[in-house]
DNA sequence: ACTTTTATTTAGATTTACCTAAACTTTATT
DNA sequence: AATAAAGTTTAGGTAAATCTAAATAAAAGT
């Protein structure tokens, strides 16, 4: 396997993520946005990654991973998710705070280290967010259907879990009638504050903040 | 604490190491050699680190860490040595192979991560090589007196351990009369192959290779 | 003290990963 | 279909960390 810089790895990972989220070809803008950088920088990197045969790319036509690129992405994702497991299971971090740390740890590229870490953790199949972990050969289970509400794409959803167990949140959800198994309809998503307007059955619609929606795990019905 | 790049951290760590090994002021050449880079690059970085007040440096006069610089060094060393403990204790790596991995892991700068890792490991005081681990406040125990023979500075030494337990090595040492507690006199160190000429008591001198001397742990008498 | 050798620094380039501003394509709107 | 808007690329530049080659300073040898 080729030797990638940290920047290159981050691009590959983001392209994989955006492809998985649905776009046929990943656009320059979407990638710039995902990586918190400028479109011009994305174009530069796209040329480099094409040169290395990790992506297919034609001017103005967007980006897709080649099979080599996918292999690389899965290896990075494997490292990321195993470190997340380690942080949560062994160092008792909460699942919300591990992402950034795993983001750094994932760039230590050593097959041996990662395979031993996996053994040490009991070869887990899913990470603390519920995402599947690719095995040493790059095989990965089905992507999870369950996502936090603020990221859900579908309009009709069912509540499957609440991740923040603070009484304040639980009381709020109770008051709104949101509990496990509740079916929600997304009426509207407001860009400016990422709040979401919801409806339950035939009851009047109401709005919840991004903070709240982040902690409601849902799956499409 | 300031935010250092990986390159800067590596310089700080090497300067600390060379200071500890005895030089009053660390020379450009020694540092270039330690970091496997060119003297010109060291001069560049010295200017930058001086700017950041981590070292004192005057043209042609060598380098020393300031107290800020020492604090930074101890923090990096703490991270490095804790990761070494983790790799050996939890992932069953052998102590010779952990250095390079720890070299990468050490650059993940998170106090919280490192303190939790330390707790998880039972707050060890020494790493797998026998070196002391600075605590969260930067306090560190006495540097170990025991070193592999190829690094020992003193001329009169006592054998305190043998790290490679292969029969081939043990037979060789036995034939030469080297065992635990044996007193050695270093007669000469040969630069070209790092071999060492030794004498035991009044017996005739003999020479051992670097390979062998790396596996003989000694302390000064 | 002078000269040679060794060590160090400067000057000028290079590479990676960015950036801004301007130019150019594609897509959407009238 | 023409034009406006949005998205993308190019051109040219910057900062970090490196390098080589040349210049300069310090140390060692005579």
Automatic annotation (TrEMBL), chains A, B:
Extent of the signal sequence: none
Domain of life: Bacteria
Function: In the presence of manganese, represses expression of mntH and mntS. Up-regulates expression of mntP.
Similarity-based family: Belongs to the DtxR/MntR family.
A Pfam family matched in the record: Fe_dep_repress
PROSITE patterns: HTH_DTXR (PS50944)
Entry keyword set: Activator, Cytoplasm, DNA-binding, Manganese, Repressor, Transcription, Transcription regulation
Primary location class: cytoplasm
Subunit structure: Homodimer.
Descriptive protein name: Transcriptional regulator MntR
Domain spans labelled HTH dtxR-type: 1-66
Localization (cell): Cytoplasm
